[in-house]
Amino acid sequence: MVIGENLKKYRTEKGFSMTSLAEKAGVAKSYISALERNIQQNPSIQLLEKIAEVLDISVDHLIKEEVNNEELDQEWANLVKEAMGSGVSKEQFKEFLEFNKWKNKQN
């Protein structure tokens, strides 16, 4: 589950032990542990808000799957916009990518 993985990631990045995070957020250490091990999979939004506040992150960071942090450079963004503006559909673009992968394997 995403919440448990994200919680552990941000907790360790911020240098919190389970005990210190639990104390600062006002929740049981066993609950933090259960979240991280995906035993508890349905935490309340209020609990997530407490934890996120201590970690100095948004609740979104806890509940959403992480996307590659590399930002799309401006040239790629412009190419995508141009393709969209010229009428290229997502399906056509996906077909092109698959063809390109196939072509590269042939070489």
TrEMBL record:
InterPro entries: Cro/C1-type_HTH (IPR001387), Lambda_DNA-bd_dom_sf (IPR010982), SinR/SinI_dimer_dom (IPR010981), SinR/SinI_dimer_dom_sf (IPR036281), TransReg_Diox_bact_type (IPR050807). Keywords: DNA-binding. SUPFAM superfamilies: lambda repressor-like DNA-binding domains, SinR repressor dimerisation domain-like. PROSITE patterns: HTH_CROC1 (PS50943), SIN (PS51500). Gene3D superfamilies: lambda repressor-like DNA-binding domains (1.10.260.40). Pfam families: HTH_3 (PF01381), SinI (PF08671). The keyword Transmembrane does not apply. Residues 63-101 form the Sin domain. Residues 7-62 form the HTH cro/C1-type domain. This is XRE family transcriptional regulator of biofilm formation. It comes from Fictibacillus halophilus.
